[in-house]
Design a protein that fits this description.
Layout (H helix, E strand, L loop, with lengths): L3 E3 L7 E3 L1 E6 L10 H8 L4 E7 L3 H13 L3 E5 L11 H11 L4 E10 L8 H18 L3 E6 L2 H9 L6 E3 L6 H9 L3 E4 L9 H9 L5 E3 L21 H12 L3 H16 L4
Parallel strand pairs: 3-4, 4-5, 5-6, 6-7, 7-8, 8-9, 9-10
Antiparallel strand pairs: 1-2
Helix pairs in contact: 2-3, 8-9
């Protein structure tokens, strides 16, 4: 594994290694150069990626990518945007996909009340609970999507105390984070933490213990400053690690090591 030497703002030149805990390399934004981008990640310090399915097609492709690349792992699930497709047949396919050895989580699942075009809230809740039941059955962690639905999300998480996972792209308050931490969840931070208006996210990052901290791209979305607006890629996490190290007054090395250890623990990756 080649460790990338990078120059980060405000820091001396350092070696940095990255495990991206939430990516979407199945997204159409990578259709033109997907293999080229992925094959170049190792040389940029990326040692691992959890690729998360959002649709049934995305779940299938996520598994394909994890079978093709030794450093990619997959999560399979249906995003709340597509909650109205979740039925017994979909759950059966997700269950079948989960038997693949590099499927390590159920996700991306949850609730999204931000967009009016999304399915009705009750439909989203049913789809969410069905997939939480699947995670419980399979003893797999979950990748949670929560947007403008903090109370309902927390209520459903509490219904499944046997299940743990990560709250991806955390957007809630410090109080909400504390409740998720009590349930055993990890907290994922994206490039949003580098944005000027991210005061709440910074407060949460300051609060989250080092052993519950994860870093992620949600690529191709939400590239961090100074690359905001560009297509996001896993090596850009270096800017997220830099920001968190400043917020928590830790070294970049400490953030790097903790986030890698945490995602490996969550996904039961031994090496």
């Amino acid at each position: 594994m080649v460790k990338t030497v990078v120059k980060l703002l405000g820091f001396n030149t350092v070696d940095i290694m990255i495990f991206d805990s939430h990516a979407h390399y199945d997204d159409e934004a990578f259709n033109e150069d997907r293999d080229k981008v992925i094959m170049g990640l190792n040389d940029k310090g990326v040692i691992g990626v959890l690729n998360c399915g959002a649709s049934i097609e995305g779940a299938r492709m996520s598994v394909q990518l994890s079978n093709k690349y030794n450093f990619i792992y997959s999560a399979v699930g249906i995003h709340p945007e597509y909650a109205d497709i979740v039925n017994d047949d979909v759950i059966k396919e997700l269950r079948d996909l989960s038997h693949q050895p590099k499927v390590r989580a159920i996700g991306e699942i949850g609730l999204d009340y931000h967009t009016e075009e999304n399915p009705d809230k009750e439909i989203q809740k049913v789809a969410f609970k069905l997939q939480m039941e699947l995670a419980k059955e399979l003893k797999l962690p979950v990748v949670i999507h929560d947007r403008d639905a903090h109370k309902d999300t927390l209520d459903i998480l509490k219904e499944f105390p046997e299940v743990i996972g990560t709250i991806h792209c955390f957007s809630g308050s410090v109080e909400f984070a504390r409740e998720c931490l009590k349930l055993g969840y990890y907290i994922g931070f994206t490039g949003v933490i580098t944005f000027k208006n991210a005061k709440k996210t910074v407060e949460v990052a300051r609060e989250v213990p080092m052993d519950r901290l994860l870093v992620e791209t949600d690529c191709p979305y939400m590239a961090p400053v100074p690359l905001r607006g560009k297509r996001n890629e896993s090596d850009y996490i270096k800017y997220i690690i830099e920001k968190i190290s400043q917020v928590k007054e830790k070294t970049i090395k400490e953030i790097e090591e903790s986030t890698i250890k945490n995602i490996k623990n969550l996904l039961s990756i031994e090496k």
